[in-house]
Protein 1
Amino acid sequence: MTVRKVPDVTFRTRVRDESIEGPNPFRWEDKTTADFFGGKRVVLFSLPGAFTPTCSTYQLPDFEKLYPEFQAEGIDEIYCISVNDAFVMNAWGKAQGLNNVKLIPDGSGEFTRKMGMLVAKDNLGFGMRSWRYAAVVNNGVIEKWFEEEGFSDNCDSDPYGVSSPQTVLEALKAGEAQAA
Ligand code: BEZ
Protein backbone atom coordinates (compact mmCIF):
# COMPACT_ATOMS: atom_id res chain seq x y z
CA MET A 1 0.00 0.00 0.00
CA THR A 2 1.29 3.49 -0.86
CA VAL A 3 2.10 5.58 2.20
CA ARG A 4 0.55 9.00 1.83
CA LYS A 5 1.96 11.78 4.01
CA VAL A 6 0.81 15.31 4.69
CA PRO A 7 3.00 17.81 2.81
CA ASP A 8 5.82 19.75 4.42
CA VAL A 9 4.91 23.43 4.55
CA THR A 10 5.35 26.41 6.84
CA PHE A 11 2.22 27.95 8.31
CA ARG A 12 2.26 31.66 9.23
CA THR A 13 0.39 31.85 12.53
CA ARG A 14 -0.27 34.82 14.83
CA VAL A 15 0.22 34.22 18.55
CA ARG A 16 -0.49 36.36 21.59
CA ASP A 17 2.63 37.85 23.20
CA GLU A 18 2.12 39.73 26.46
CA SER A 19 5.49 41.45 26.08
CA ILE A 20 4.02 43.47 23.21
CA GLU A 21 2.38 46.66 24.41
CA GLY A 22 -0.69 48.22 22.89
CA PRO A 23 -4.08 47.01 21.76
CA ASN A 24 -2.86 44.22 19.48
CA PRO A 25 -0.31 42.09 21.37
CA PHE A 26 0.26 39.48 18.68
CA ARG A 27 3.29 38.46 16.63
CA TRP A 28 4.00 36.15 13.74
CA GLU A 29 5.07 32.62 14.60
CA ASP A 30 5.99 30.18 11.87
CA LYS A 31 4.94 26.59 12.49
CA THR A 32 5.80 23.67 10.28
CA THR A 33 3.98 20.51 9.34
CA ALA A 34 6.40 18.69 11.68
CA ASP A 35 5.37 20.98 14.57
CA PHE A 36 1.69 20.11 14.14
CA PHE A 37 1.86 16.49 13.05
CA GLY A 38 5.15 15.07 14.32
CA GLY A 39 4.79 12.24 16.86
CA LYS A 40 1.02 12.67 17.23
CA ARG A 41 -2.12 10.92 16.03
CA VAL A 42 -4.51 13.67 15.01
CA VAL A 43 -7.76 14.31 13.21
CA LEU A 44 -7.43 16.95 10.52
CA PHE A 45 -10.49 18.45 8.89
CA SER A 46 -10.59 21.02 6.17
CA LEU A 47 -13.42 23.23 5.03
CA PRO A 48 -14.24 25.95 2.51
CA GLY A 49 -14.06 28.94 4.80
CA ALA A 50 -14.01 30.38 8.31
CA PHE A 51 -17.37 31.80 9.46
CA THR A 52 -19.36 29.95 6.77
CA PRO A 53 -22.66 28.50 8.00
CA THR A 54 -22.22 24.71 7.94
CA CYS A 55 -18.66 24.99 9.24
CA SER A 56 -19.63 27.36 12.07
CA THR A 57 -22.91 25.73 13.05
CA TYR A 58 -22.14 22.02 12.73
CA GLN A 59 -18.69 20.85 11.71
CA LEU A 60 -16.40 22.91 13.98
CA PRO A 61 -18.64 23.03 17.10
CA ASP A 62 -19.39 19.30 16.84
CA PHE A 63 -15.68 18.41 16.60
CA GLU A 64 -15.14 20.71 19.61
CA LYS A 65 -17.87 18.97 21.67
CA LEU A 66 -16.82 15.45 20.69
CA TYR A 67 -13.12 16.00 21.47
CA PRO A 68 -13.18 13.80 24.64
CA GLU A 69 -14.63 10.94 22.58
CA PHE A 70 -11.87 11.36 20.00
CA GLN A 71 -9.29 11.34 22.81
CA ALA A 72 -10.78 8.06 24.04
CA GLU A 73 -10.04 6.65 20.55
CA GLY A 74 -6.37 7.59 20.78
CA ILE A 75 -6.50 11.01 19.11
CA ASP A 76 -4.10 13.60 20.55
CA GLU A 77 -5.26 16.70 18.69
CA ILE A 78 -8.01 17.86 16.37
CA TYR A 79 -6.93 20.40 13.74
CA CYS A 80 -9.17 22.46 11.51
CA ILE A 81 -7.50 23.93 8.44
CA SER A 82 -8.86 26.43 5.98
CA VAL A 83 -7.51 28.59 3.18
CA ASN A 84 -7.83 31.70 5.34
CA ASP A 85 -5.13 33.88 6.88
CA ALA A 86 -4.11 33.81 10.55
CA PHE A 87 -6.09 36.97 11.41
CA VAL A 88 -9.33 35.46 10.11
CA MET A 89 -8.69 32.06 11.71
CA ASN A 90 -7.90 33.65 15.10
CA ALA A 91 -11.06 35.77 14.94
CA TRP A 92 -13.11 32.68 14.07
CA GLY A 93 -11.59 30.69 16.94
CA LYS A 94 -12.39 33.52 19.36
CA ALA A 95 -15.97 33.78 18.09
CA GLN A 96 -16.40 30.03 18.52
CA GLY A 97 -14.90 29.99 22.06
CA LEU A 98 -12.68 27.05 21.20
CA ASN A 99 -10.84 25.12 23.91
CA ASN A 100 -10.18 21.85 22.12
CA VAL A 101 -9.93 22.18 18.35
CA LYS A 102 -6.84 24.00 17.06
CA LEU A 103 -7.17 26.13 13.93
CA ILE A 104 -4.46 26.13 11.28
CA PRO A 105 -4.31 29.03 8.81
CA ASP A 106 -3.41 27.94 5.27
CA GLY A 107 -3.66 31.48 3.92
CA SER A 108 -1.69 30.86 0.73
CA GLY A 109 -3.39 27.50 0.13
CA GLU A 110 -0.01 25.74 -0.17
CA PHE A 111 -0.88 22.84 2.16
CA THR A 112 -4.31 22.40 0.57
CA ARG A 113 -2.84 22.51 -2.95
CA LYS A 114 -0.19 19.92 -2.06
CA MET A 115 -2.91 17.72 -0.54
CA GLY A 116 -4.65 17.87 -3.93
CA MET A 117 -7.71 19.43 -2.31
CA LEU A 118 -7.61 22.99 -3.67
CA VAL A 119 -10.71 23.96 -5.67
CA ALA A 120 -11.99 27.17 -7.22
CA LYS A 121 -14.91 28.77 -5.45
CA ASP A 122 -15.10 31.81 -7.71
CA ASN A 123 -18.83 31.20 -8.03
CA LEU A 124 -19.07 32.39 -4.40
CA GLY A 125 -16.44 35.12 -4.73
CA PHE A 126 -14.09 33.05 -2.55
CA GLY A 127 -11.23 32.31 -4.98
CA MET A 128 -9.25 29.12 -4.35
CA ARG A 129 -10.36 27.18 -1.25
CA SER A 130 -10.34 23.70 0.21
CA TRP A 131 -12.67 20.90 -0.73
CA ARG A 132 -14.21 19.47 2.43
CA TYR A 133 -12.35 16.46 3.80
CA ALA A 134 -11.12 14.95 7.03
CA ALA A 135 -8.26 12.57 7.81
CA VAL A 136 -6.73 10.66 10.65
CA VAL A 137 -3.02 11.42 10.48
CA ASN A 138 -0.50 9.43 12.50
CA ASN A 139 2.96 11.04 12.76
CA GLY A 140 2.35 12.69 9.38
CA VAL A 141 1.07 9.55 7.66
CA ILE A 142 -2.54 9.58 6.46
CA GLU A 143 -4.23 6.62 8.12
CA LYS A 144 -7.89 7.24 7.28
CA TRP A 145 -9.40 9.48 4.63
CA PHE A 146 -12.89 11.04 4.49
CA GLU A 147 -13.59 13.12 1.39
CA GLU A 148 -16.93 14.61 0.46
CA GLU A 149 -18.26 13.46 -2.90
CA GLY A 150 -18.19 15.54 -6.06
CA PHE A 151 -14.72 17.16 -5.84
CA SER A 152 -14.93 19.97 -8.39
CA ASP A 153 -14.34 23.62 -9.12
CA ASN A 154 -17.23 26.02 -8.57
CA CYS A 155 -19.45 23.29 -7.17
CA ASP A 156 -22.99 24.58 -6.84
CA SER A 157 -23.58 22.59 -3.65
CA ASP A 158 -21.60 22.03 -0.45
CA PRO A 159 -21.69 18.31 0.33
CA TYR A 160 -21.33 17.60 4.05
CA GLY A 161 -21.54 14.27 5.83
CA VAL A 162 -18.57 12.06 4.99
CA SER A 163 -16.21 14.46 6.81
CA SER A 164 -18.50 15.12 9.76
CA PRO A 165 -17.15 14.44 13.25
CA GLN A 166 -19.83 11.81 13.77
CA THR A 167 -18.67 9.85 10.68
CA VAL A 168 -14.99 10.11 11.58
CA LEU A 169 -15.66 9.05 15.18
CA GLU A 170 -17.77 6.08 14.07
CA ALA A 171 -14.95 4.92 11.80
CA LEU A 172 -12.41 5.23 14.62
CA LYS A 173 -14.66 3.27 16.96
CA ALA A 174 -15.18 0.58 14.34
CA GLY A 175 -11.45 0.49 13.59
CA GLU A 176 -12.23 0.95 9.91
CA ALA A 177 -9.25 1.74 7.75
CA GLN A 178 -10.27 3.61 4.63
CA ALA A 179 -7.59 3.58 1.99
CA ALA A 180 -5.70 6.83 2.27
C1 BEZ B 1 -21.13 26.56 4.60
O1 BEZ B 1 -20.32 26.12 5.41
O2 BEZ B 1 -22.32 26.57 4.84
C2 BEZ B 1 -20.65 27.14 3.31
C3 BEZ B 1 -19.39 26.81 2.88
C4 BEZ B 1 -18.95 27.34 1.68
C5 BEZ B 1 -19.76 28.15 0.95
C6 BEZ B 1 -21.02 28.47 1.40
C7 BEZ B 1 -21.47 27.94 2.59
Protein 2
Amino acid sequence: MAASLFLGTLVAAAWVGAGCATRPGLSWQRYEFERPQMGLPFRIVLYATDGQVATNAAEAAWKRIAELNSILSDYEEQSELSRLSRTAGSGRSVAIGPDLWRVLIRSEEMARASGGAFDVTVGPLVQLWRRARRQRVLPEPDRITAARAAVGWRRVELRPRTRSVRLVAPGMRLDLGGIAKGYALDEAFAVLRHQGVARALVSGGGDMVVGEAPPGERGWKVAVAPLDAPGAPPARTVWLRWASLCTSGDLFQHVEIGGVRYSHIIDPRTGVGLTDHSLVTVIARRGITADALATAASVLGPVAGIRLVERTPRAEALVVRSVESAGKLQFEMAETRGFRGWELRR
Ligand code: AMP
Ligand code: MG
Protein backbone atom coordinates (compact mmCIF):
# COMPACT_ATOMS: atom_id res chain seq x y z
CA MET A 1 0.00 0.00 0.00
CA ALA A 2 1.29 3.41 -0.88
CA ALA A 3 2.42 4.91 2.37
CA SER A 4 2.27 8.39 1.01
CA LEU A 5 0.96 10.55 3.72
CA PHE A 6 3.02 13.46 2.58
CA LEU A 7 1.31 13.87 -0.73
CA GLY A 8 1.09 17.52 -0.10
CA THR A 9 4.21 18.98 -1.52
CA LEU A 10 4.83 19.72 -5.13
CA VAL A 11 8.18 19.70 -6.73
CA ALA A 12 8.66 23.42 -6.85
CA ALA A 13 12.24 23.70 -5.85
CA ALA A 14 15.19 21.93 -7.29
CA TRP A 15 18.69 21.68 -6.04
CA VAL A 16 20.72 22.81 -8.99
CA GLY A 17 24.06 21.63 -7.83
CA ALA A 18 27.24 23.09 -6.61
CA GLY A 19 29.76 22.31 -9.28
CA CYS A 20 32.69 20.76 -7.57
CA ALA A 21 32.82 17.10 -6.71
CA THR A 22 36.28 16.80 -5.32
CA ARG A 23 38.62 19.72 -4.75
CA PRO A 24 42.32 19.29 -5.26
CA GLY A 25 44.12 18.85 -1.98
CA LEU A 26 40.93 17.95 -0.18
CA SER A 27 39.60 14.48 0.12
CA TRP A 28 35.93 15.45 0.14
CA GLN A 29 33.86 13.27 -2.13
CA ARG A 30 30.27 13.89 -3.17
CA TYR A 31 27.77 11.06 -2.70
CA GLU A 32 24.19 10.89 -3.85
CA PHE A 33 21.45 8.52 -2.78
CA GLU A 34 17.84 8.28 -3.93
CA ARG A 35 14.96 6.28 -2.59
CA PRO A 36 11.19 6.45 -2.59
CA GLN A 37 10.00 7.25 0.90
CA MET A 38 6.56 8.29 2.08
CA GLY A 39 5.34 7.71 -1.47
CA LEU A 40 7.67 10.37 -2.87
CA PRO A 41 11.16 10.48 -4.35
CA PHE A 42 13.64 11.37 -1.61
CA ARG A 43 17.24 12.32 -2.11
CA ILE A 44 20.32 12.64 0.03
CA VAL A 45 23.39 14.47 -1.24
CA LEU A 46 26.37 14.56 1.08
CA TYR A 47 30.07 15.18 1.18
CA ALA A 48 32.29 12.81 3.11
CA THR A 49 35.88 11.72 3.10
CA ASP A 50 35.05 8.05 3.34
CA GLY A 51 32.60 6.00 1.26
CA GLN A 52 31.67 3.70 4.09
CA VAL A 53 30.81 6.64 6.35
CA ALA A 54 28.65 8.08 3.55
CA THR A 55 26.75 4.84 2.93
CA ASN A 56 26.21 4.07 6.60
CA ALA A 57 24.98 7.59 7.28
CA ALA A 58 22.53 7.50 4.36
CA GLU A 59 21.23 4.07 5.40
CA ALA A 60 20.60 5.30 8.94
CA ALA A 61 18.79 8.37 7.59
CA TRP A 62 16.54 6.24 5.34
CA LYS A 63 15.71 4.04 8.30
CA ARG A 64 14.70 7.05 10.36
CA ILE A 65 12.39 8.39 7.63
CA ALA A 66 10.72 4.99 7.23
CA GLU A 67 10.26 4.79 10.98
CA LEU A 68 8.64 8.22 11.08
CA ASN A 69 6.30 7.31 8.25
CA SER A 70 5.13 4.29 10.20
CA ILE A 71 4.35 6.57 13.14
CA LEU A 72 2.92 9.67 11.46
CA SER A 73 1.15 8.42 8.33
CA ASP A 74 -2.61 8.64 8.09
CA TYR A 75 -2.48 6.16 5.19
CA GLU A 76 -1.18 3.37 7.41
CA GLU A 77 -3.97 1.77 9.44
CA GLN A 78 -1.58 0.73 12.18
CA SER A 79 0.44 3.94 12.49
CA GLU A 80 0.46 5.55 15.90
CA LEU A 81 -1.43 8.46 14.36
CA SER A 82 -4.21 6.28 12.92
CA ARG A 83 -4.57 4.43 16.20
CA LEU A 84 -4.88 7.74 18.01
CA SER A 85 -7.51 8.99 15.55
CA ARG A 86 -9.60 5.90 16.23
CA THR A 87 -9.94 6.93 19.87
CA ALA A 88 -11.67 10.22 18.95
CA GLY A 89 -14.79 10.89 21.00
CA SER A 90 -14.17 7.94 23.34
CA GLY A 91 -13.23 10.23 26.22
CA ARG A 92 -9.94 8.38 26.52
CA SER A 93 -6.60 10.08 26.80
CA VAL A 94 -3.83 8.19 24.99
CA ALA A 95 -0.12 8.23 25.85
CA ILE A 96 1.96 8.82 22.73
CA GLY A 97 5.62 8.56 21.74
CA PRO A 98 8.09 11.47 21.48
CA ASP A 99 7.90 11.93 17.70
CA LEU A 100 4.14 12.21 17.46
CA TRP A 101 4.18 14.41 20.54
CA ARG A 102 6.69 16.85 19.03
CA VAL A 103 4.73 17.10 15.79
CA LEU A 104 1.43 17.65 17.61
CA ILE A 105 2.92 20.33 19.86
CA ARG A 106 4.33 22.21 16.86
CA SER A 107 1.02 21.75 15.02
CA GLU A 108 -0.84 23.34 17.91
CA GLU A 109 1.60 26.27 17.99
CA MET A 110 1.12 26.76 14.25
CA ALA A 111 -2.66 26.53 14.53
CA ARG A 112 -2.64 29.21 17.20
CA ALA A 113 -0.17 31.45 15.35
CA SER A 114 -2.12 31.19 12.09
CA GLY A 115 -5.54 31.75 13.65
CA GLY A 116 -6.55 28.19 12.71
CA ALA A 117 -5.51 28.38 9.03
CA PHE A 118 -3.09 25.56 9.75
CA ASP A 119 -5.05 22.77 11.39
CA VAL A 120 -4.08 19.10 11.46
CA THR A 121 -7.61 18.12 12.45
CA VAL A 122 -8.71 18.73 8.83
CA GLY A 123 -8.57 14.93 8.31
CA PRO A 124 -12.34 14.42 7.73
CA LEU A 125 -12.33 17.23 5.15
CA VAL A 126 -9.20 15.89 3.46
CA GLN A 127 -10.98 12.53 3.13
CA LEU A 128 -13.98 14.19 1.48
CA TRP A 129 -11.81 16.10 -0.97
CA ARG A 130 -9.69 13.06 -1.78
CA ARG A 131 -12.88 11.32 -2.81
CA ALA A 132 -13.97 14.34 -4.81
CA ARG A 133 -10.67 14.09 -6.65
CA ARG A 134 -11.19 10.42 -7.47
CA GLN A 135 -14.81 10.83 -8.56
CA ARG A 136 -14.53 14.35 -9.97
CA VAL A 137 -17.66 15.38 -8.12
CA LEU A 138 -17.79 18.11 -5.49
CA PRO A 139 -18.57 17.00 -1.93
CA GLU A 140 -22.20 17.64 -1.00
CA PRO A 141 -22.64 20.68 1.28
CA ASP A 142 -24.19 18.65 4.11
CA ARG A 143 -21.22 16.28 4.06
CA ILE A 144 -18.89 19.26 4.36
CA THR A 145 -20.99 20.50 7.28
CA ALA A 146 -20.84 17.08 8.95
CA ALA A 147 -17.06 16.82 8.43
CA ARG A 148 -16.55 20.31 9.83
CA ALA A 149 -18.24 19.22 13.05
CA ALA A 150 -15.26 16.91 13.61
CA VAL A 151 -12.61 19.57 12.82
CA GLY A 152 -11.02 22.03 15.22
CA TRP A 153 -7.53 22.23 16.66
CA ARG A 154 -8.84 23.39 20.04
CA ARG A 155 -10.45 20.01 20.47
CA VAL A 156 -7.11 18.24 20.61
CA GLU A 157 -6.13 18.17 24.28
CA LEU A 158 -2.39 17.79 24.79
CA ARG A 159 -1.36 16.84 28.32
CA PRO A 160 2.37 17.38 28.80
CA ARG A 161 2.62 15.77 32.26
CA THR A 162 1.62 12.36 30.91
CA ARG A 163 2.50 13.14 27.26
CA SER A 164 -0.97 12.06 26.29
CA VAL A 165 -3.65 13.25 23.92
CA ARG A 166 -7.42 13.30 23.97
CA LEU A 167 -9.37 13.86 20.81
CA VAL A 168 -12.52 15.40 22.14
CA ALA A 169 -15.04 15.23 19.28
CA PRO A 170 -16.30 11.98 17.74
CA GLY A 171 -15.10 11.43 14.17
CA MET A 172 -11.94 13.53 14.57
CA ARG A 173 -9.14 12.44 12.30
CA LEU A 174 -5.65 13.90 12.26
CA ASP A 175 -3.73 14.50 9.04
CA LEU A 176 -0.10 15.53 9.31
CA GLY A 177 0.41 15.91 5.55
CA GLY A 178 1.21 19.61 5.96
CA ILE A 179 3.98 19.24 8.55
CA ALA A 180 5.34 15.70 8.98
CA LYS A 181 7.56 15.67 5.93
CA GLY A 182 9.41 18.72 7.23
CA TYR A 183 9.92 16.95 10.54
CA ALA A 184 11.11 13.78 8.79
CA LEU A 185 13.68 15.83 6.83
CA ASP A 186 14.92 17.44 10.06
CA GLU A 187 15.27 14.07 11.69
CA ALA A 188 17.00 12.48 8.70
CA PHE A 189 19.50 15.34 8.70
CA ALA A 190 20.00 14.96 12.46
CA VAL A 191 20.90 11.31 11.88
CA LEU A 192 23.46 12.25 9.22
CA ARG A 193 24.99 14.76 11.59
CA HIS A 194 25.12 12.23 14.35
CA GLN A 195 27.11 10.02 11.97
CA GLY A 196 29.58 12.83 11.42
CA VAL A 197 28.14 14.14 8.15
CA ALA A 198 27.15 17.83 8.22
CA ARG A 199 27.74 18.83 4.58
CA ALA A 200 24.47 17.34 3.48
CA LEU A 201 21.14 17.94 1.83
CA VAL A 202 18.05 15.81 2.36
CA SER A 203 15.09 16.42 0.10
CA GLY A 204 11.68 14.90 -0.40
CA GLY A 205 9.33 15.94 -3.16
CA GLY A 206 10.97 19.35 -3.48
CA ASP A 207 11.18 20.22 0.22
CA MET A 208 14.60 20.12 1.78
CA VAL A 209 16.83 20.50 4.80
CA VAL A 210 20.48 21.36 4.35
CA GLY A 211 23.44 21.66 6.68
CA GLU A 212 26.93 22.98 6.03
CA ALA A 213 27.71 24.14 2.48
CA PRO A 214 29.47 21.86 -0.02
CA PRO A 215 33.27 22.25 0.22
CA GLY A 216 34.38 25.60 -1.16
CA GLU A 217 30.83 26.80 -1.79
CA ARG A 218 28.82 29.53 -0.10
CA GLY A 219 25.80 27.27 0.19
CA TRP A 220 23.55 24.82 -1.57
CA LYS A 221 22.28 26.50 -4.70
CA VAL A 222 18.55 26.02 -4.99
CA ALA A 223 16.24 27.21 -7.75
CA VAL A 224 12.83 28.24 -6.52
CA ALA A 225 10.59 27.37 -9.44
CA PRO A 226 8.11 29.94 -10.72
CA LEU A 227 4.36 29.56 -10.55
CA ASP A 228 3.32 27.37 -13.49
CA ALA A 229 1.36 29.93 -15.45
CA PRO A 230 2.21 31.81 -18.62
CA GLY A 231 3.88 35.10 -17.80
CA ALA A 232 4.60 34.21 -14.17
CA PRO A 233 7.57 35.93 -12.53
CA PRO A 234 10.82 34.03 -13.21
CA ALA A 235 12.58 31.52 -10.95
CA ARG A 236 14.72 32.84 -8.15
CA THR A 237 17.89 31.33 -6.79
CA VAL A 238 18.81 31.03 -3.14
CA TRP A 239 21.96 29.81 -1.42
CA LEU A 240 21.08 27.70 1.59
CA ARG A 241 23.14 26.76 4.64
CA TRP A 242 21.78 25.30 7.87
CA ALA A 243 18.23 25.85 6.74
CA SER A 244 15.12 24.26 5.34
CA LEU A 245 13.16 25.27 2.26
CA CYS A 246 9.59 24.05 1.75
CA THR A 247 6.96 24.87 -0.83
CA SER A 248 3.21 24.63 -0.94
CA GLY A 249 0.77 25.13 -3.75
CA ASP A 250 -1.92 23.66 -5.90
CA LEU A 251 0.21 22.80 -8.90
CA PHE A 252 0.16 19.00 -8.91
CA GLN A 253 -2.48 18.20 -6.39
CA HIS A 254 -5.82 19.59 -7.27
CA VAL A 255 -9.09 18.64 -8.87
CA GLU A 256 -10.91 20.61 -11.52
CA ILE A 257 -14.69 20.45 -11.26
CA GLY A 258 -17.04 22.73 -13.17
CA GLY A 259 -14.11 24.79 -14.41
CA VAL A 260 -12.86 25.53 -10.90
CA ARG A 261 -9.54 24.17 -9.62
CA TYR A 262 -9.65 23.02 -5.98
CA SER A 263 -6.38 22.48 -4.16
CA HIS A 264 -5.54 19.60 -1.80
CA ILE A 265 -5.02 22.31 0.81
CA ILE A 266 -8.25 23.06 2.62
CA ASP A 267 -9.36 26.22 4.30
CA PRO A 268 -10.53 24.88 7.68
CA ARG A 269 -12.79 27.91 8.07
CA THR A 270 -14.90 26.96 5.03
CA GLY A 271 -14.17 23.26 4.55
CA VAL A 272 -13.40 23.91 0.90
CA GLY A 273 -10.18 23.26 -1.07
CA LEU A 274 -8.37 26.49 -1.93
CA THR A 275 -9.28 27.86 -5.33
CA ASP A 276 -6.59 30.49 -5.82
CA HIS A 277 -3.41 29.47 -7.59
CA SER A 278 -0.41 30.20 -5.53
CA LEU A 279 3.04 29.01 -4.78
CA VAL A 280 4.47 29.63 -1.35
CA THR A 281 8.16 29.12 -0.59
CA VAL A 282 9.30 29.28 3.00
CA ILE A 283 12.85 29.18 4.34
CA ALA A 284 13.26 28.52 8.05
CA ARG A 285 15.82 27.05 10.37
CA ARG A 286 13.87 23.82 10.67
CA GLY A 287 11.85 21.75 8.22
CA ILE A 288 8.97 21.30 10.62
CA THR A 289 8.54 25.08 10.73
CA ALA A 290 9.05 25.73 7.01
CA ASP A 291 6.61 22.97 6.03
CA ALA A 292 3.83 24.09 8.36
CA LEU A 293 4.32 27.78 7.53
CA ALA A 294 4.12 27.10 3.79
CA THR A 295 0.78 25.33 4.19
CA ALA A 296 -0.51 28.02 6.56
CA ALA A 297 0.54 30.86 4.25
CA SER A 298 -1.19 29.12 1.33
CA VAL A 299 -4.45 29.27 3.27
CA LEU A 300 -3.91 32.82 4.52
CA GLY A 301 -2.90 34.33 1.17
CA PRO A 302 -0.07 36.79 0.48
CA VAL A 303 -0.85 39.54 2.98
CA ALA A 304 -1.72 37.58 6.12
CA GLY A 305 0.64 34.78 5.09
CA ILE A 306 3.64 37.09 4.87
CA ARG A 307 2.63 38.70 8.16
CA LEU A 308 2.62 35.28 9.83
CA VAL A 309 6.09 34.45 8.52
CA GLU A 310 7.45 37.89 9.53
CA ARG A 311 6.29 37.13 13.07
CA THR A 312 8.08 33.77 13.09
CA PRO A 313 11.74 33.99 14.18
CA ARG A 314 14.30 33.21 11.47
CA ALA A 315 11.72 32.46 8.78
CA GLU A 316 11.34 34.05 5.35
CA ALA A 317 8.80 33.55 2.59
CA LEU A 318 7.99 34.29 -1.00
CA VAL A 319 4.38 34.07 -2.18
CA VAL A 320 3.32 34.23 -5.81
CA ARG A 321 -0.35 34.14 -6.65
CA SER A 322 -2.15 34.42 -9.96
CA VAL A 323 -5.35 36.38 -10.08
CA GLU A 324 -7.70 36.64 -13.03
CA SER A 325 -8.87 40.15 -13.72
CA ALA A 326 -10.90 41.19 -16.78
CA GLY A 327 -10.03 37.88 -18.43
CA LYS A 328 -6.30 38.47 -17.96
CA LEU A 329 -3.92 36.67 -15.65
CA GLN A 330 -2.15 38.96 -13.25
CA PHE A 331 0.41 38.09 -10.62
CA GLU A 332 0.69 39.18 -7.05
CA MET A 333 4.03 38.75 -5.37
CA ALA A 334 4.87 39.24 -1.77
CA GLU A 335 7.94 38.43 0.24
CA THR A 336 9.29 38.94 3.71
CA ARG A 337 11.93 41.61 4.19
CA GLY A 338 14.70 39.05 4.65
CA PHE A 339 13.96 36.72 1.74
CA ARG A 340 16.41 38.45 -0.56
CA GLY A 341 19.12 37.85 1.99
CA TRP A 342 19.10 34.19 0.99
CA GLU A 343 19.68 35.11 -2.65
CA LEU A 344 22.66 37.29 -1.83
CA ARG A 345 24.08 35.21 0.98
CA ARG A 346 27.81 34.70 0.97
P1 AMP B 1 1.65 20.94 2.05
O1 AMP B 1 1.94 20.43 0.68
O2 AMP B 1 2.80 20.85 2.99
O3 AMP B 1 1.06 22.31 2.00
O4 AMP B 1 0.58 19.97 2.71
C1 AMP B 1 -0.70 19.76 2.17
C2 AMP B 1 -1.34 18.62 2.92
O5 AMP B 1 -1.63 19.04 4.25
C3 AMP B 1 -2.67 18.16 2.35
O6 AMP B 1 -2.49 17.15 1.37
C4 AMP B 1 -3.38 17.63 3.58
O7 AMP B 1 -2.91 16.35 3.89
C5 AMP B 1 -2.91 18.59 4.66
N1 AMP B 1 -3.73 19.80 4.81
C6 AMP B 1 -4.68 20.29 3.96
N2 AMP B 1 -5.19 21.45 4.42
C7 AMP B 1 -4.54 21.72 5.60
C8 AMP B 1 -4.63 22.79 6.55
N3 AMP B 1 -5.45 23.81 6.39
N4 AMP B 1 -3.82 22.71 7.65
C9 AMP B 1 -2.97 21.68 7.83
N5 AMP B 1 -2.85 20.65 6.95
C10 AMP B 1 -3.61 20.66 5.85
MG1 MG C 1 3.41 22.06 4.47
